């Protein structure tokens, strides 16, 4: 499965809001600092997200470097995304309030004290990213905007976290790390040994017509594309244990693309082997 890291790449693509009066692109802060109204929240916009529509997101997290180290232990926050096609950066408090957020979220509560200059990461927010990537309007190369907001932080001084933003002279800007798999990809071990593949359950994942095309890329476990790799398609036959009916096989091209067309709706297994390996496919 490939893992990609997408940094904030412009000063206007991260910032914060404070209370009901302040909006700025000069810092990234989240939490509470001493009274009911002293709440900070942050937005982060990551551009050129080169993940295909419908990819399966297995892991995603925000990466930060601490700029300031307040010591409060009641920093409770929530992470959502903007549920919109290639969103522009937030420009004001009113603009922020008008953005449509994902229904999926992750609560990041009780964040321990951070040490200045040290790296930190959020919990897994794969469900938030999946909520965006799976939409029909998503295209590889679009932007993803994340909202990291105060959510029930204990009202006390220092209950906020303060990572470096894009404009900091020496610390790394906020980044989004995503591990993903093409919805139709074949994943092979790095040494090209034959391997039981993950089933592609098209019927439950997609609304599809009577016939359709299944396509994707062959990659090894390290995310490297494997051209000239033989790919086979099997149909599952219900039973305990299930059995597998061989449908057809083909070779992926030099760019690792493969495609099977004219398929009927059912559940399929996709398997592959490097060209020249033993002439068998694992069906166990």
TrEMBL record:
Protein name: Uncharacterized protein
Source organism per UniProt: marine sediment metagenome
């Amino acid at each position: 499965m490939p893992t990609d890291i997408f940094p904030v790449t412009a000063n206007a693509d991260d910032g914060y809001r404070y209370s009901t009066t302040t909006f700025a692109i000069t810092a990234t802060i989240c939490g509470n600092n001493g009274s009911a109204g002293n709440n900070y929240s942050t937005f982060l916009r990551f551009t050129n997200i080169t993940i295909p529509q419908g990819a399966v997101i297995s892991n995603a997290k925000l990466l930060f470097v601490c700029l300031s180290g307040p010591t409060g232990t009641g920093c409770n926050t929530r992470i959502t995304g903007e549920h919109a096609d290639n969103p522009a950066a937030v420009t004001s408090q009113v603009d922020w309030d008008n953005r449509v957020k994902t229904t999926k979220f992750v609560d990041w509560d009780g964040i321990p004290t951070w040490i200045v200059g040290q790296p930190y990461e959020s919990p897994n927010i794969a469900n938030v990213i999946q909520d965006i990537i799976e939409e029909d309007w998503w295209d590889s190369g679009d932007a993803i905007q994340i909202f990291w907001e105060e959510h029930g932080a204990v009202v006390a001084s220092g209950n906020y976290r303060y990572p470096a933003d894009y404009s900091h002279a020496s610390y790394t800007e906020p980044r989004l790390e995503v591990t993903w798999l093409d919805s139709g990809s074949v994943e092979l071990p790095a040494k090209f040994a034959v391997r039981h593949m993950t089933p592609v359950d098209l019927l439950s994942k997609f609304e599809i017509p009577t016939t359709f095309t299944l396509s994707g890329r062959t990659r090894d476990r390290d995310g490297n594309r494997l051209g000239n790799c033989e790919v086979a398609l099997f149909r599952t036959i219900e039973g305990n244990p299930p059995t597998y009916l061989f449908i057809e096989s083909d070779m992926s091209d030099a760019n690792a693309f493969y495609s099977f067309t004219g398929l009927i709706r059912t559940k399929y297994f996709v398997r592959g082997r490097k060209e020249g390996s033993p002439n068998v496919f694992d069906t166990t």
